[in-house]
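Quick review question:
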């Protein structure tokens, strides 16, 4: 079975004008220890760069008491057979541009993975919400193909990963 983990990420709108797409740069995840107790190795991060193209950017929506639409989270429910049904819907995707890695200026032991993506303007309110909020939080979902448990540091060492998608 594949193991999936969610890691926090950041999102930045690019200054490219288009009536169909909002172009964005996503700071997807970093090497080293994450808040969820996992640790992505540098080799795993480098290998994962080839798994981004066309992967979905997902969102589920809610209407706040003030009438504004916003994003919810990783929303799912179980059907009558106990199968997971995701409530998030695709609102964009990663492009075929090659993702890249950059060293963290504050923590030299971490490297961040960045990738370009588009958000569709026509099929949901996702782009409108992002523009109104001047950005949004995102969570990147990783498929873990291989891992080891590091008992000394009490962390899951992720040695082979793929990008599954990103949720707004």
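Suggested answer, residue by residue:
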């Amino acid at each position: 079975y594949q193991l999936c983990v969610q890691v926090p990420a950041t999102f930045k709108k690019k200054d490219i004008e288009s009536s169909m797409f909002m172009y964005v740069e996503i700071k997807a995840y970093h090497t080293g220890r994450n808040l969820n107790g996992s640790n992505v190795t540098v080799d795993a991060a480098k290998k994962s760069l080839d798994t981004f193209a066309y992967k979905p950017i997902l969102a589920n929506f809610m209407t706040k008491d003030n009438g504004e639409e916003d994003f919810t989270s990783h929303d799912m429910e179980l059907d009558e057979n106990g199968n997971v049904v995701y409530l998030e819907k695709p609102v964009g995707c990663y492009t075929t541009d090659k993702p890249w890695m950059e060293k963290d200026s504050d923590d030299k032991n971490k490297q961040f993975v960045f990738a370009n993506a588009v958000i569709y303007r026509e099929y949901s309110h996702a782009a409108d919400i992002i523009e109104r909020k001047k950005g949004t939080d995102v969570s990147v979902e990783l498929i873990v193909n291989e891992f080891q448990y590091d008992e000394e540091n009490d962390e899951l060492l992720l040695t082979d990963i793929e990008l599954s998608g990103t949720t707004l």
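Why it works: The chain has a mean pLDDT of 89. The chain has two helices and 14 strands.
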